[in-house]
Amino acid sequence: MAREVNEQEYRLIDRVTQGFQTIANGLGKLKTGMTELNQTAELASKGLGLVVGAARGIGEQVQGIADYETAMRRVIDITQATEAEQRALQQAVQDAQTDLGVTANVSADALLRMARDGFSATEAIGALQAQLAFAKAEGRDTGQVIDQLGGVLDAFGERPQIIGQLADQLVAVSRAAGTGTQTLAEGLARVGNAADESNVSVQQTLVYLGALAEKNIESTQAARQLVSILGDFRDPASKAGEALKELGLSGKSFDEVITALAGNSAAATRVLETLGDKPRVALRALLADGGGALRELNTVIAGSEGAAKKAADALKGTFNDSLDRVVASVDRAKIALGAPILQPLADGLQQLADKLNEAAASGAFD
Q: What is the C-alpha separation between 340 and 221, in angstroms, rounded?
């Protein structure tokens, strides 16, 4: 049994209790449970338990708002956002709520992931909507999407800031090639290092994977055969390397070699003879119709800006999309109403913590 708290200590706790009760009365429909704190008059130990319980009650009601606030504070700190950029970050979150039906916490988490990956505030804002739209269109978790596409860019040694462009390009190529964005993204991740060594960009590799997908060579098989071809073309001692030297193509980039072979069937036949069965089938698919599929997919990529948003907008009018938008609207209203009380609550909790620490240090609860 805790010993009786002296009158001065009781008054300190009681004043903090009254402060929380005042805040609670102003919360309207937010259920706070702060009235429990009135029972602290009996024993300090019992009072402490009720204080903690009441604080938890508040936390349960405003936790979502508090998590959003914390994530945005971290984004601002990591990016060292200016006041104008801070306003732009808030606006980007609100735009996502309105345009895509995405809650504030999802947007804040996406911004935080990008900030931790080296994005400036402006760069994160620019990439946000494409990432959210991509995740919505594909029915995937936004955090997983950002991690996957960020991993693809890392494999290619590309700047993470082009992640929004990659999302648009994946959607556009997947629709044109009749395959899935996840299949293409997984292929890019597998080919990345080999493509980077051959100075082939992520966009051009995506074109090659799309062209292979059109010929029903997908996923692991497509990646494996493309890596094999890249390696053979890069190695001057390989049979393919020797053939390229004979054709005067040694030293040219992979893209230049593919273009040259697509326009010269005799040269293409010479190189194809040097490859194994499966790589040969893959290269033949890339060169088909004089490289027609490659040209078409390059055009698709050139016009891919906004493809992810367009794909997400295609879901408008469905029950799930309408429900998402209602939830996002409620989320926005909740933040607008609840955000102003966070600072008073934080101040009150800090004051309570300070007083309880003082009481503990004085030996009052011994």
A: 55
What burial class does residue 218 get, using C-beta atoms within 10 Å of its C-beta: 0-12 exposed, 13-18 middle, 19+ buried? Answer: buried
Per-residue pLDDT tens for 50-61? 444 544 555 555
From the centroid of its chain, how far is CA 217?
29
Give me 235's structure tokens.
């190695």
Tell me, what amino acid is at 137? A
pTM of the model: 0.75
pLDDT digits (tens, 9 = 90+) for 39-78: 433 444 444 454 445 445 555 556 767 788 889 999 999 9
Average pLDDT over residues 108-114: 95
10 Å Cβ neighbour count for 131? 27
- The one-letter code for the residue type at 216 is N
